[in-house]
Amino acid sequence: MIRNFFSFVICIIVVVLFFSLFTIEEGHKGIILRFGKVLRDMDNNPLIYNPGLHIKIPFIETIKILDSRIQTMDNQADRFVTMEKKDLIIDSYIKWRISDLSRYYLATGGGDISQAEVLIKRKFSDRLRSELGRLNVQGIVTDSRNRLMTDVRASLNNGTSGEEALISYSKNIKNFNSEKYDISEQKRYRISDSVNPNSMAALGIEIVDVRIKQINLPTEVSDAIYQRMRAEREAVARRHRSQGREEAEKLRATADYEVTRTLAEAKRQSLIVRGEADAETAKLYATTFNEDPSFYSLIRTLRAYENSFKKNNNDLMVLSTETDFLRFMQSPQILPSINN
């Protein structure tokens, strides 16, 4: 009987320990809920349990473990309007983490990350839309891009906008660095005694970083710009083609002129050379024929024979056998002697 009693007591102790002890992994933190309410200390700050082994009252208290690491949320590309009333498609991402577990638990309905991201995206979209409405496209794409993201992050964390957010954010960081932050005593830093309900601190969330991944123009605007650029390029191409045709005509006319001039000069030179050669030939013939007239008569007669009795000559000649034209054919003996 006593043995059974001790066994029962041991079982009760094991069950109590099983429901009393809990562990929290690295990168996570936990809060205790007692009858559905967050358990707080004497300073009305929620009790936060860091990674390790802890104990709670079984069946009365429950532990809610939340991921305290930096989370990354990719935002779907959305359309925004600039100060110039121009639309931009902006793709961005946000890095955030839990800054107040109690507020985060209550604001997200039990620590639901998807619900937290819905709230973050809603506030981020409103803040980014407000900041982009004060800038032009050039400022967004170039110099003001880093400043824009700093403004948005500060405004989300502080619930203000523009330079006020930056001033408030830098003051809070300065105060935070000047205080002693003792995790072992679970003292939490508070940005202000009264949290701005429009800030992410009211949700127990801190925005660590905001970045723009890509900036695009809407499809209709991109198509219009492409068509305008294409028209401009086509106009430039037409102008270059027109100038090319003009230059080609000039080069062609110059080449034709040079060809005509060169041919005319060559023809003139050839005529001069031919004339000089004919003159020299005539001079030689005259000199030769003057020295021997009978030889000249013979040459002229032989050329006449050659032209008259060609193979393809179909002309008909009726000549007397006594004609003087055939004297060298009738009596070859009368051929004059050729002086060497």
From TrEMBL:
It is a single-pass membrane protein. This is Protein HflC. GO terms for molecular function: peptidase activity. One of its GO terms (cellular component) is membrane. It is found in: Membrane. Pfam families: Band_7. HflC and HflK could regulate a protease. Its main location: membrane. Residues 19-229 form the Band domain.
